[in-house]
Amino acid sequence: MTILVTGASGMFGKAVAQTLLDRGDEVTVFQRRPSGLGCREVLGDVTNPKAVEKAAVGAHAVVHLAARVSPVGSRRDFEEVNVGGSVNVLSAAREAGATRLVHVSSPSVAYVGAAQVGVGAAPAEPARARSRYARSKAKAELLMLEADRPGLAVVCVRPHLVWGPDDTQLVERVAQRARAGRLPVIGSGAALVDTTYVDNAAEAVVAAVDRAEAAHGRALVVSNGEPRPVVELLRSICAAAGVEPPHRHLPFGVTKALGAGAELIWSGLRLQSEPPMTRFLAEQLGTAHWFDQRLTRSLLQWQPTVGLEEGLRRVAAARSG
């Protein structure tokens, strides 16, 4: 197929594009800076509808990964990219005559503060999601699913905590916080958390392209299916990154209060740096979130191929090499 992939300069988007290229698809990538993949490339921003239309010309399928992912930023910033950009991608897909659209979402769109224990993909909740990022992604997911119809099969894939070598979202942030002494263990650290190694996430997205007719109109959570206590995960990531693991424990309620205070300060001063704690981060580190993968794996006919331990070994090897 001829496939457009947005957001291919990041680790995850690049992995999706590379997976498609490796199996022989004709791929166009669209993002703000060069990807280095060697395929057709259109540089631009998803907030520019004309640029998106140019990238989508001739596409049979579209995979939309481009998004603003940050703990800070105004509501307008997030909605302009994550909601407005999705509108532009959807319009460009229709204009190009694409018949399949895979939208990469996030489990945070359905997270409203309670633990997520062995659940499936609950409906996105823009009004109740716990961060500006999550609320904007929830709106984007809903508009994408509403566009599903004969002639355009839409699937929303929610990979949970994607990580791997060259990861700047999870591994690098954990390592940076650990080095700075800003990575506490929340409560006992026993809450179970699942994650997704980047190769597995990319293969699941490609499977969603192939199985769009079977899975259309659905949101599907993707993960390794290997939940671990959050303290074990943090220590393992720190070991792979070559930094000292966290030892300091903070009560859950205290950490949420610190996060709320930091958010007020950062918002009031319009700071663009990452705050030491946010309420959302406190909840992610202090509550369980792992998911039932049976429907996802059945519909997509997909299984993860890289286990947690092998993924950590690859991260350590990349950092030492």
Describe the structure.
The protein is built from twelve helices and 15 strands. The chain has a domain at about 1-160 and about 195-225 and about 290-305: NAD(P)-binding Rossmann-like Domain (Rossmann fold, 3-Layer(aba) Sandwich), CATH 3.40.50. The chain is α/β, with parallel strands linked by helices. The model has no long low-confidence stretch (mean pLDDT about 95).
Write a brief structural summary.
The chain is 44% helix and 17% strand. It has helices at 11-22, 49-56, 75-96, 132-146, 171-179, 198-210, 212-215, 230-241, 252-269, 279-286, 294-300, 308-320; strands at 2-6, 26-31, 40-43, 61-64, 100-104, 116-119, 153-159, 162-163, 185-186, 192-193, 196-197, 218-222, 228-229, 249-250, 289-291. The longest helix is centred in the N-terminal third of the chain and has 22 residues, at 75-96.
